Amino acid sequence: xxxxxxxxxxxxxxxxxxxxxxxxxxxxxxxxxxxxxxxxxxxxxxxxxxxxxxxxxxxxxxxxxxxxxxxxxxxxxxxxxxxxxxxxxxxxxxxxxxxxxxxxxxxxxxxxxxxxxxxxxxxxxxxxxxxxxxxxxxxxxxxxxxxxxxxxxxxxxxxxxxxxxxxxxxxxxxxxxxxxxxxxxxxxxxxxxxxxxxxxxxxxxxxxxxxxxxxxxxxxxxxxxxxxxxxxxxxxxxxxxxxxxxxxxxxxxxxxxxx
Length: 259
Known about the structure:
There is one protein chain. The chain is mostly helical. It contains nine helices and no strands.
């Protein structure tokens, strides 16, 4: 007489396999970050100087950045290098996440998810690059030229790092707006027409988000809010293109059915 397995154990087996695979994917991601970090650590000070260049280029002659804490000269470059390692490992980390979820997706979902994933990575990097090459020079020029004449600008290296990392993250996330808008339209949660009518609220929301995510000055808030709104319009544009393609495909299908 043959024995049948316990149904509860049979149900638990796939769950355990998924958890083991998830742990394996997470370990690979962590190892990738550590390997990149160890490879970059020898250049930690150079990386910090590169990130600090937009401010240092605008400091008065003879001025320099300072460290107000004993461990800051070590911890600030260390922290920045770790962040850069995570930043550089993002494509591989997302690849591991994709490899974990892809088996459960349909072919049409896979075909759509890959371009969205690649676009998200590119837009996040683009936001960080925009912050470094466009926002930082304008922002620091404004800060260094509007202070009282008798006040020497000597920024703490740790405070500067926290400031720029916040802006890197804010602009990287803000540049994801086209993807978010596109997904809302694609999923049917809203329509292009509905989002178009909400433009005044979107503009207000962009400036509110800019106020919350950037320093309390009009320049930095505007430098974040204006690109956010323009990227929102880009998302609407792609939404319109997708809708037209769907309407065209639906019309061709209807014509084939009639034929």
